[in-house]
């Protein structure tokens, strides 16, 4: 049944990503754990590998369109790729030393990341709809023409890359928050920069998980079968639905999913 159910579930996830622009790994990894009973480490590795193709295809399109800020991508990637290997190395050391309840720890970690991430996005969405702007809390923007700006960008990339390496969650969403917070990009370049950075990060992260043996190709291929057409369908349908309502619904669902993961084991 898994061979039929997983592509159908992946199709739904892909459509949600196409409709809202967020939620790929945040939906797929919990889905693999909660619905299909896949161990946390295998769910993470397989999801990273499956997400890579979708990001690479999208990133290539944005690169072709010129909707990418290559300077931001470069300095974020210089931090995020080593950061992801740091996260993967922590998993490897834990596995080699026979750490007890590793999958339980990873499931809880994913839950907390989802809960915090989705709450931040939902709060930001509500504030924007209420036309409330918290100017006093606006952080300074990074200037990539200075060494300080470059170092700070790499540090942010390293921290977020480590989270992605550990949990598979946030290659798009976490970095989108960072781009919005620390850089002044027009909306088109914001999306393109986020996708291209995520594509590069996921290529290296996927290779790392593959070397650990946490990639199950019997999961990856059905996920590809569902998510790729799902994203294309969702992208076509997105103009038919109010995006704000869709995103608010998705963030609310992710908060519930995060809570369930935290209390699963």
Automatic annotation (TrEMBL):
Membrane recorded as keyword: yes
Coiled-coil regions, chain positions: none
Keyword Hydrolase assigned: no
Locations listed in the record: Cell membrane; Membrane
Top-level taxon of origin: Bacteria
Bilayer topology term: Multi-pass membrane protein
InterPro entries registered for this protein in UniProt: TM_pro_TauE-like, TSUP/Inactive_protease-like
Segments passing through the bilayer: 72-93, 105-127, 151-183, 195-213, 219-238, 245-262
Family from the record: Belongs to the 4-toluene sulfonate uptake permease (TSUP) (TC 2.A.102) family.
Keyword list, A-Z: Cell membrane, Membrane, Transmembrane, Transmembrane helix
Listed name of the protein: Probable membrane transporter protein
Pfam families cross-referenced by the UniProt entry: TauE (PF01925)
């Amino acid at each position: 049944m898994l061979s039929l159910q997983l592509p159908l579930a992946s199709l739904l996830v892909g459509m949600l990503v196409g409709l809202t622009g967020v939620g790929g790994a945040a939906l797929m990894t919990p889905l693999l754990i909660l619905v299909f009973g896949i161990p946390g480490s295998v769910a993470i590795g397989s999801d990273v590998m499956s997400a890579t193709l979708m990001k690479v295809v999208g990133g290539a399109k944005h690169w072709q369109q010129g909707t990418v800020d290559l300077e931001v991508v470069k300095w974020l990637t210089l931090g995020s790729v080593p950061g992801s290997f740091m996260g993967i190395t922590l998993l490897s050391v834990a596995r080699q030393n026979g750490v007890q309840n590793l999958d339980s720890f990873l499931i809880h970690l994913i839950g907390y990341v989802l809960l915090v991430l989705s709450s931040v996005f939902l709060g930001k969405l509500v504030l924007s709809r209420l036309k409330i702007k918290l100017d006093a809390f606006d952080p300074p923007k990074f200037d990539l023409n200075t060494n300080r700006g470059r170092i700070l960008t790499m540090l942010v990339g390293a921290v977020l890359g480590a989270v992605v390496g550990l949990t598979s969650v946030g290659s798009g969403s976490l970095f989108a928050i960072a781009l919005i917070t620390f850089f002044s990009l027009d909306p088109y370049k914001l999306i393109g920069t986020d996708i291209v950075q995520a594509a590069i990060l996921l290529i290296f992260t996927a290779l790392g998980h593959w070397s650990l043996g946490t990639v199950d190709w019997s999961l990856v291929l059905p996920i590809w079968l569902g998510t790729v057409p799902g994203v294309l369908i969702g992208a076509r349908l997105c103009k038919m639905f109010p995006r704000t309502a869709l995103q608010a619904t998705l963030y609310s669902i992710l908060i519930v999913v995060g809570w369930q993961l935290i209390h699963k084991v």
